[in-house]
Task: structure prediction
Amino acid sequence: MNKKVIIPGIIGLGLLAIVTLFLVKKPGFPNSGVAETADLHLPVMRFGLPVDSFNIIEGIVKPGQNLGEILTGFGVPMSKVDQLSRNSEEIFDVRKIRSGQKFFLFQSPDTVRKACYLVYENNLVEYVIFGLSNSMSISRGEKKVQRMQKSASGIIASNLWNTMTDNDLNPMLAIELSKIYAWTIDFFGIQKGDKFRLLYEEQFVDTVSTGVGPVYAVEFEHMGKNYYAFRFSQDEGFDYFDDKGENLRKAFLKAPLEFSRISSRFSGSRLHPVLKIRRPHHGVDYAAPLGTPVVSIGDGTVIGKGYQGGSGNFVKIRHNAVYTTMYLHLSRFGKGVSTGSRVQQGEVIGYVGSTGLSTGPHLDFRVFMNGTPIDPLKIDAPPGDPVKTDYKQDFIHTRDSLTVCLYSINWHR
Result:
């Protein structure tokens, strides 16, 4: 069906529903079908309260200020404050009122200015209403979250974060993109002139952005190559796929070399074979013949290479924003491996040796997750399935539709 036909049709039905809602039959002509616009004066509501019925004072909780200080400042007796605190125990702990948060006092519109309600904003979405009448009621509420479909683009001048802020975009988009492309693009190595455009959702409350929702599609041009990402669901949950239907989540190799045996495992206290003292061993030692090729377990960027004390010759590779690996005691380095160079999964980055503090040829292999060493034999980095045959046509339709939308976005610096 033609998309240009569907959209106006939906809009037309929506307008018809709205018009029907505000039409009423003329009295005296119940069967005439003649209608007139209802003379409705709907009140403006805020926090579920009619704004026109109150005088409203807006304030900010000051450092050290509590509920009692706020309310007594507006003429509410302390006896009422105590009762209100007791009534609210199961709904909201008044001791958790935080400085810097907004509150709104609803007063009677007459000259008495009697305090009727206090509304405390717990965050941008949640609020608590304290009724100050004889009932002393307490209730929670949530503001309506508006979800907007948005598009954006940018050309990198310094880094991704700055590009987002320079284009008045939510900087959290930079984090979302780094997650989507964690296995594909090294965002520490993006260059001036790289560019992106994307389709995404953003949530707003009272015109204030509360966060970025799903990113639906991205085209990221890095070093002259286009990397696509499309959000698509198959079986359970959503994942991101490139334009060929391959999952952007990749797996690590199980081991960085062909080895004969594991000679030492990850441990918090190991007797060092040379120093003869106990200390942590944050890696796995693979015994292998001198000169055995050592490969990178995944795509990444070399962030360290050289000779370092007991580690001997080493190579350190950052794979994404989460994982980094190290390869120690190498006899020599792979061809073209240097700090800043990009390596592919399975690429030779060095050869087994016995440099540094070592009793024989082996590879000490280490993995870091968010900077913390973890057991390499327990890495949880499963690959994502590609688009399955049963979903292929649906994916192609989604990809093509989103690509048309991406290409309609102009580039902005």
User: Anything to note?
Assistant: Residues 252 and 297 are 5 Å apart (CA to CA). Residues 3-21 form the longest helix (19 residues).
